[in-house]
Specification:
alpha/beta; Pectate Lyase C-like; Jelly Rolls; 9-stranded parallel sheet; 26% helix
């Protein structure tokens, strides 16, 4: 009741408040895109002018049109600085500055520029990061002493940049922790990647480091991880001061162009390759790649159902013209790419496909079906995947990997039919075995029956003989009884006669005695 009264009084008080017309409402504006250009209409004519403008706020995007901008840029807001064309939007650093782009705040992005300095001197930086949560991607950095240098504590992403001709290092890290470097190409520099002064827990994956005097140089830095990188034709591929670092992940290491090992075993099975070297690639007593790749690592990003997937290919072939398509009518998912290599040699490819993207149904090399060696991704991997390994003679060929629900259903039905046929074959073998046992039993029964008949005949013969013998015995008994009877009667008769004779003799003797008396 009290709550109802209070609500009623509050409603009356609000109705009695005068109109707020004329009062300014502060509403946060949506992030917007500002433009920079000097040969067509734009919001600003220089990049630094845009960054210094009070109207440009964190979260905004500054789009820089094609052209050459002779300035050094200091990013002091969490904005996205993006070039219109990677190759044609050029920032040419000020000769009096030791950097071309310096990022000094968090949550900033730099992408799609060519970064250079016409007058480059020792100690110059192409892109310098002194904060965290920064993304630097899809830039060309050419001919600067240090291409990208970090004095930063973590969570920065440096990806898909091309760094050429650095007099010192393509990428340098000083006291930098927890950053990620992926898909960068570093060539023709003194050092491809240089870590020193306590840089640790950084991850390098999918980078190509080629034709540098040193591929990777590590000093006083530990627990950094390198895998799926390509180290190509660097006179010194990797060197450390003995600080231990990690050179593989989930059973995949790096590609080393000077690796001399072989790939003949998989899980202990002889002569079954899987694209991973059987012997480690040693660096020093504290560092070594336990799972070196037998071919270069290639990575391709595809989008399906608004999700991003990464398809990787380890191959000793040149991979080109990669495409991923979904058939509008069939719904079949198709990966296709071209392989090429030196004629007369054998090529191989080890394709990793996320199972969330597609399930392998059919693999064709130049239209001919190939059955690959198939095995699941490593246990613990964040993205479930399947590996397809196959070999081929080197010529220009097109590889097609198809995922078809119809084909999968047909395969399932075929497998079910095969299982039924196997079961039927097993039942047939069981029936034949039982039939054989039955025939054996019947044969034994016939033999037993024949034996029984023979025994019965023998028994009958013996019974007849017994009857005959019994009859003879009876006859003998009859004869014996008759003879005995005759004998007894004769004996009785003779005995009675003899007794009568004795009696008469006695009588006669008595009479004689009487007469004498």
């Amino acid at each position: 009741m009290k709550k109802t009264v209070l609500f009623f009084l509050l409603t009356l008080s609000l109705l009695s408040v005068p109109s707020l017309t004329g009062y300014r409402a502060f509403v946060k504006a949506q992030n917007r895109t500002w433009t920079v250009g000097y040969d067509r209409p734009a919001d600003f004519t220089s990049i630094q002018e845009a960054l210094n403008s009070y109207n440009v706020v964190p979260g905004d995007t500054i789009l820089v049109y094609r052209g050459v901008y002779n300035e050094s840029v200091k990013i002091n807001k969490g904005v996205t600085l993006m070039g219109e064309d990677r190759d044609a939007t050029i920032i040419n650093g000020d000769a009096n500055s030791d950097f071309v782009i310096s990022v000094e705040v968090s949550n900033a992005n730099v992408m799609n520029f060519t970064v250079m300095k016409q007058v480059a001197t020792a100690g110059d930086n192409g892109i310098r990061l002194v904060s965290s949560s920064i993304e630097v991607s899809h830039n060309n950095i050419i001919g600067i002493y240090d291409g990208i240098i970090l004095y930063s504590w973590g969570n920065n992403v440096i990806s898909d940049n091309v760094i050429l001709g650095s007099n010192d290092s393509g990428i340098s890290l000083i006291l930098s922790v927890g950053n990620r470097f992926t898909g960068n190409t570093i060539s023709n520099s003194q050092k491809g990647i240089y870590l020193f002064s306590g840089s640790r827990s950084n991850k390098f994956t999918g980078n190509t480091i080629s034709n540098n005097q040193q591929g990777v140089s590590i000093s006083y830095s530990t627990s950094n991880t390198f895998y799926d990188n390509n180290f190509i034709n660097n006179p010194i591929q990797a060197t450390t001061d003995g600080s231990p670092n990690v050179w593989s992940n989930f059973g995949e290491g790096n590609y080393w162009s000077d690796y001399k090992g072989s790939d003949l075993t998989k899980n202990g099975s002889i002569n079954q390759s899987d694209g991973i070297g059987d012997q480690p690639r040693n660096i020093d007593s504290s560092n070594g790649d336990s799972a070196p790749l037998m071919g270069m690592f290639n990575s391709f990003n595809v989008v399906s159902a608004e999700k991003d997937y990464q398809i990787t290919i380890v191959s000793n072939s040149t991979i080109s013209d990669f495409t991923f398509e979904i058939g509008p009518e069939t719904g079949n998912k198709v990966i296709q790419f071209t392989i090429s290599g030196k004629d007369g040699t054998i090529g191989f490819s080890r394709v990793s496909v996320p199972t969330g993207l597609m399930n392998y149904s059919l693999l064709l090399v130049s239209g001919n079906e190939v059955v690959p060696t198939s095995f699941s991704g490593p246990i613990g991997s964040q993205v479930p995947q399947v590996y397809l390994y196959f070999a081929y003679p080197h010529t220009d060929q097109i590889v097609t990997i198809i995922s078809s629900e119809t084909w999968n259903l047909l395969q399932e039905l075929s497998q079910s039919l095969g299982a039924l046929q196997d079961d039927l074959h097993g039942l047939n073998l069981t029936y034949l075995g039982l039939l054989s046992n039955y025939n054996a039993i019947m044969s034994n029964y016939s033999e037993l029956q024949q034996g029984y008949l023979e025994l019965n005949a023998s028994y009958t013969d013996h019974l007849s003989e017994y009857n005959d013998s019994l009859q003879n015995l009876r006859n003998l008994m009859y004869i014996f009884a008759g003879v005995s009877a005759v004998f007894i009667m004769t004996t009785v008769y003779l005995s009675s006669r003899l007794h009568g004779r004795k009696a008469r003799t006695s009588e006669e003797k008595g009479t004689h005695f009487d007469l004498v008396s």
